[in-house]
Queue: 2 jobs
Job 1
Amino acid sequence: MKPTGKVTLLSAGPGDLDLLTLKAARALTCADVVLLDDLVNPEIASLAPQARVIKVGKRGGCRSTPQAFIERLMQRYARKGLHVVRVKGGEALLFGRAGEELAALRQAQIPVEIINGVSSAFAAAAGLGVSLTHRDHCQGVIFVTAHLRDHSEPDWRALAATRMTLAIYMGMSRIETLCASLAQALSSETPAAVVQWAGSANERRVTGTLATIAAVATEAGLGSPAIILVGDAIGEAVTLAAFEAEMPLLRSA
Amino acid sequence: MKPTGKVTLLSAGPGDLDLLTLKAARALTCADVVLLDDLVNPEIASLAPQARVIKVGKRGGCRSTPQAFIERLMQRYARKGLHVVRVKGGEALLFGRAGEELAALRQAQIPVEIINGVSSAFAAAAGLGVSLTHRDHCQGVIFVTAHLRDHSEPDWRALAATRMTLAIYMGMSRIETLCASLAQALSSETPAAVVQWAGSANERRVTGTLATIAAVATEAGLGSPAIILVGDAIGEAVTLAAFEAEMPLLRSA
């Protein structure tokens, strides 16, 4: 009997292949099978020259590969003794379905390795030139998905009560209502920003306040995938925008 | 007059040099000056063969390089036309003093580039084999520092009210009291874990509950630097620990 292969749960980062870790790049080099999520930069396949590459995207709301099928696919190839690399956008251990995939692989007794990466909210902050947790403004940051399993909303009031920076994933389809909910608990002048395709060649960003950001983002034509950032720490980005106009070299490296 | 150089604010990740991004590794290759924080793996200097390497650590509570001096040092070298790489542990835009350093560099009109990385809490989750946000358990994760500027405590009750996973940085010196505070708002049976030196060769981890984790960590001799994780999503790690005993191949890659 052939020895069992293994599955590597790999974080692809926000898009730019340069934001992969050295460990991730090496794992791809020796992959036999690569399973790619929708939002992952397809050029990542060039780093896995030996691999069979299979797209298994699951776009919110669209018809797509069922989760159970993806899990069976990983197990089938691993059982053949192959090295399966499951590529997830951003950081694999934040949102997505890593928890369920890990549980399924464990139950099937298939060895798993996890390789971390850069999550989109950090790339968004880098694009804006701000720390997510400037200590003049807050004690931390909350990463929350606006896309809940039961189609309900997160408890925006409880999140606002922490006075922390909010990094909202998958919120663009309801940006207007979520900003309105937050404005009931926070000042409507609270700085906010939207960064689409953060950390990729197509990155676009706008800044404003809780009162204005939904309109500003809509007017600029920004949609999914994007990160919505809210909090006083994000106010530093406004200064940056003003500064950049005079100082185009900034972040030109 | 020589052209102004630039500063790269570089995220070194949690320790293992393999967890640097490709972009970070390349920036180091052509650095002229490297300013290293305390908790950064000193072997990173081997990736910057041309650079003058200066240690500018600022351990909490210890005598160390004042922040203002670090900022002046960056500016002085950049003004000489050099490429200064400021290396920060974990992700540069989470805690640390990136916000202040960015503001100082902007005021001095020095071009800045930011390179993201892997924050320790993600490495801790990888070590435990869990998602930080398993959707059976929560809608997000909070990254909070227990080490506040004015020596007060974060509002643990407000954080607990969000029902999210908590990733607590710099909390080991007060783990007992902070777990007690959290246990006033959460069940004392809430799963918890401590991971010391997450994502490095010296990584050590223990799991327990809010009621037990402080004693378990102390008995195992775990101290700073460590991440404390609290929340139902972390309960998946307990299953993993039980499973690993029978299945040592797991994450052996």
Job 2
Amino acid sequence: MTAHHEQHDIATWTTDVLVIGAGFAGLEVARALGRAGIPAIIVDRRNHHLFQPLLYQVATASLSATDVAEPVRQILRRHRSVQVILGEVEQVDATLCRARLGGGELIAYRHLVLAPGSGHSYFGHDDWAAHAPGLKSIEDARSIRSRLLVAFERAERCTDPDEKRRLLTFAIIGAGPTGVELAGSISELGRRTLAREFRTIDPAAIRILLIEAGPRILAGFPDDMAAYASDSLECRGVEIRTGTPVSDIGPEHVELDDESLDVGLIIWAAGVRPSPLAAQVAETDRGGRAIVDARLMVPGLDNVFVLGDAAACPDAEGNPLPGLAQVAQQQGRHLGPALVAHIRDGHPLPEFRYRSRGNTAIIARHAAIFHHGRLKLRGWIAWAGWALIHVYLLVGFQHRVLVSAQWLSRYLTGYRGARVIDEEVAEKAPLRAGPSSDA
Amino acid sequence: MTAHHEQHDIATWTTDVLVIGAGFAGLEVARALGRAGIPAIIVDRRNHHLFQPLLYQVATASLSATDVAEPVRQILRRHRSVQVILGEVEQVDATLCRARLGGGELIAYRHLVLAPGSGHSYFGHDDWAAHAPGLKSIEDARSIRSRLLVAFERAERCTDPDEKRRLLTFAIIGAGPTGVELAGSISELGRRTLAREFRTIDPAAIRILLIEAGPRILAGFPDDMAAYASDSLECRGVEIRTGTPVSDIGPEHVELDDESLDVGLIIWAAGVRPSPLAAQVAETDRGGRAIVDARLMVPGLDNVFVLGDAAACPDAEGNPLPGLAQVAQQQGRHLGPALVAHIRDGHPLPEFRYRSRGNTAIIARHAAIFHHGRLKLRGWIAWAGWALIHVYLLVGFQHRVLVSAQWLSRYLTGYRGARVIDEEVAEKAPLRAGPSSDA
């Protein structure tokens, strides 16, 4: 009992500001606190900050995992007042101003900045997760990459035409920007890069299905831009099924309302779910996001702030802002200095106003859409706009020039060098022979 | 019975040359066959060729895994007569000229080039493998990298001084070039790169032990050069224990003859064991390597050749050549064109003569040894010689310039960006709290 008692009562660490999550939002806040020399602790389950907008390029073998992941300690090494802890926050007690880590340690804080991000939502079908990985972490990206490449390798070896057809059928569930990017990128990988490397695979036999429950793809974009994206994808051999909810997912098949598809790989890009920590400190909206006011503050708790994907923060019209990297980063850049002024001089906290830098979806090389207010761009020019935004967002990455150069060169040449198949995946999905193995 | 029967009698593929293993030796042979348009199949368990000499830099977070792994298909894509198969050869029947894959497929060949490489040897203690990973594959390197970084992360969080000391004690078993390179690189990582990033770790508390059963380190080098390496390592805080066999290894400890060490990480660099396929086609020496003649041919089988780590090939004095990348590569470059001339025009196969380009061991930045005949180099100049050899060996890597530039910049600046901790490892070795978790 004593040990248990101790564990709950004596804080292992005490800090002015506890930041949970080293994503775009949390990192910006930690940086501002560090610059001001305010004691802070930042906790993340990973030792790295992840540049999520380029994660799909890891999943499709254009970039290496370490290209889009930078150690949190590396980023914050000059900020001596900030301590980085690798760990998982299991519980937050906003009344006692304490957070508990998985190891049992308690962190007592004066201010809490909660920016834990989001995971996947399988809409109540958590058993689908094993068959249809999503794309949120380095492990997710590596898993998709390995499964994708193994499907091609198995197809190359396969002598049964039906099995070969199945292996070369890829289903992407959800046609938001991530789904569209994955579909376009897999199409290029299969028809351009890999086509010349296999001997028994006909590139025309590769089938990519983009399955969306809603009435059209890219719901966040205007109609005409989504139509352009649809056409571009179809030109690249992607079959689009809108208004088509998925009713079941197995290891090698996807059930639609009226059809059962045998597939070699399923990727989930349909839904996200904010971290459950959001609900521990605030009321949540229907999507599980913590309701905060325009100062990013939890109503009734003037020392708790929620940022990024886990927050339902109102825009000027009172509608919640979308879960985008640029929203999270701007929130962090807003709150960081504001919190410093508040802690040091008691300044009141100003309201956050989001300034969109435009929305982009990449379809393939030479094809992208960029939408910013009344500005609508397509094709090359949209792709260039996207590249600019991403180089700008890559601030903080020591090797941003190198990564950009690498990525650009691979993007232009179609070279996909980052094609390591992980052993675990290769073993889980052993290569099978043709007909004889069915016996 | 029918299916079984079929599986054993009907070859799935028939080829002029079957190459097993896409390492330095196998790849060179496949390239020569491809250039000549001779039908060949190359089989490897991995989809990538691995640049093993730089693998320790992946394990110590200097290079990314994909920097040292290039897809085999990519390398051979222009050689239309060569088919690449991802798979594991389980059995070779040299009498019937057939090889069987794990999936059951049979490959019938006219000539066999066996270059399957080697794995670790734990000298009969295979249970040590789980606690002391070796360094042969991408997975090995990632596993060591994750365990190493997790040890530092746990130490940073740890409030128990004894546990902290244990976590920061690293044991490397085996003081050949790989052991020396790992010890030097871990010392630099801990004392140089990570030192400025942690808040509670005293760099002087980091303990690195290099444990060797033999009388001195670097048995393959002259005495004075090994002595120089010893001094250099000791300057960098590495403790060297020669004449010290290991009697037991557990998850957190190493037993020596006279001492039990509590350690945070153990790395195995002590012994290798050739692939068991070697013994299926030839008599083997004490080390399990296939005995071949100077033409790399198995005595009595004039269509079977064994190359690389799995072969005991005699040098001019009749002593077996060492298991080095440059030996394997030269054997491949020798046999490839010779086999083409033999198959096409019935030319006799010439004998292989190894021409050493010199042996190098890297201790740290500014410190290396290079030995070639009577030439002995130390320090910067040796390091430069090593870099030249490796750039030369990197031929075939499309991005060799980029990798060299990256590696050079990271080597010079001490930046270790490739510091992704894999989730599996983080979960297997969960972060623990200080004293309270011992309850």
